[in-house]
Amino acid sequence: MTANPKGRDAPLSQRRLRLWLRMLRTTRTVESQLRDFLREEFDTTLPRFDVMAALFQSSDGLKMSALSKRLLVSNGNVTGIVDRLEHDGLAERVSVAGDRRASLVRLTDVGEQRFQEMAARHRAVVDEIFAPLDHDRLDSLAEAFGRLKDEGEGNP
């Protein structure tokens, strides 16, 4: 009987690399489905949805730097998205008391309503995508990803 180089007998480093590639493909597939959904259903983009989600979670608003940091993107990327949201009446910039140079970005009432509509449909699409996973599998994956995150922080 010969060893299966793709199975449990493969070196751990090879299995870990294979897992990473599978995770990456899966993430890209799910992300592509969500991008298509947002474009087709709401004529919007995933980055725009992400900015609106961050603003929705911070009803008092966020400075551009805080928004960029939260989304792990550059200030330039966020500025373009916020400009378009503002142009469409979904977000607004408001002055920060005591700091003439700073402003907060927050969703308008229309922006909050629009985001809530998108978020409800987004949640349903995510639920549909992950429907093959039962409670036990979800718990197992959440634990594994949490462990990777917690133990991997600070490593290259």
CATH topology name: Arc Repressor Mutant, subunit A
Distance between the termini: 39 Å
Largest sheet: 3 strands, antiparallel
Low-confidence stretches: none
**CATH architectural category:** Orthogonal Bundle
Proportion of beta-strand residues? 5-15%
In total, the number of domains comes to 1
For the record, what CATH class applies?
Mainly Alpha
- DSSP helix count? 6
Described by the principal axes of the CA atoms, the overall outline is: globular
Overall radius of gyration: 20 Å
What would the average pLDDT be, to the nearest integer?
Answer: 91
CATH 4th-level superfamily: Winged helix-like DNA-binding domain superfamily/Winged helix DNA-binding domain
H/E topology pattern: HHEHHEEHH
- The spatial strand order of the largest sheet comes to 1-3-2
The amount of helix comes to: 55-70%
